[in-house]
Amino acid sequence: MTAAPAPVLVTGTGTDVGKTIATAALAALARSVGLDVGICKPMQTGLAPGEPGDADEAARLSRVQRVLEVRRLPDPLAPETASRVAGVPQSTLDDLLGPIRRWLDANRDPASVDTAYQAAAPAEKAHSAGAAAATEAGRLDLIEGAGGVLVRLGTDLTVLDLARSLDAPVIVVARAGLGTLSDTELTIRAIEAAGLRCAGIVIGSWPYDPDLAERCNVEDLPRLTGVPVLGRVPAGAGQLDPAEFTRHAAQWFAPGALDAVVRPRAAHLP
């Protein structure tokens, strides 16, 4: 039996870099080649109960049906701080891993192919990045972190700790402009120092008319980090309606982008 693909953790070089919209774009890209896609947000802060969260927004734009939010805290703060301010227990690794693993193990079907993909024209399928190799994996589970890789989800529990426990490769969402080279290289060094694989970089908000620094950064990021730039999500993409968003998402990524992301793991998690 082929091992299920590992989930992919989407992190950022900081806050407000476009992680949620980049997660939606990756989900839409994966759906365009027939993968069964799920979106998970382990920690959501800054929203009251019942308000749509980041996972809901990414799922709305990408038309993904499998969605999980594990824990929500009301104040717009880092999760550890938000727990402390709210006077509630800090999250532990087991608190987050249990629900995520149950979600990952539910409805595992390597042969699952999106019905929208089945109905697509052959030329449309051929245009999709990484179609052949990625479709063999059957599914893609995206886990959106909170802020950067060292954000604490609980006391002594970082986003990197969660990724390591899930055996998850990491995608880094980065800014386009001046300063992103240092931010991104530091983030990727932290990922690699933790023994994790950085699958690629996605520019979270690519301007319509990029300036000199932004154009140079697209070339310099892979040279300095050793990690490919998988895609550039246009600024304002989150304002598109879901039909437009899903129709254009594949155009925002390099050919073969999914092949760098979707790789079966050697064995199931214990």
From TrEMBL:
GO terms for cellular component: cytosol. Its EC number is 6.3.3.3. Its main location: cytoplasm. It catalyses: (7R,8S)-7,8-diammoniononanoate + CO2 + ATP = (4R,5S)-dethiobiotin + ADP + phosphate + 3 H(+). GO terms for biological process: biotin biosynthetic process. The keyword rRNA processing does not apply. The keyword Metal-binding applies. The active site is at 41. Pathway: Cofactor biosynthesis; biotin biosynthesis; biotin from 7,8-diaminononanoate: step 1/2. It comes from the Bacteria. ATP binds at residues 16-21, 56, 144-147, 204-205. Pfam families: AAA_26. Substrate binds at residue 45. Keywords: ATP-binding, Biotin biosynthesis, Cytoplasm, Ligase, Magnesium, Metal-binding, Nucleotide-binding. It is found in: Cytoplasm. Mg(2+) binds at residues 20, 56, 144. Its cofactor is Mg(2+). InterPro entries: DTB_synth_BioD, P-loop_NTPase. It is an enzyme of class 6 (ligase). GO terms for molecular function: ATP binding; dethiobiotin synthase activity; magnesium ion binding. Belongs to the dethiobiotin synthetase family. Homodimer. Catalyzes a mechanistically unusual reaction, the ATP-dependent insertion of CO2 between the N7 and N8 nitrogen atoms of 7,8-diaminopelargonic acid (DAPA, also called 7,8-diammoniononanoate) to form a ureido ring. This is ATP-dependent dethiobiotin synthetase BioD. It comes from Dietzia psychralcaliphila. The lineage of its organism: Bacteria, Bacillati, Actinomycetota, Actinomycetes, Mycobacteriales. The gene is bioD.
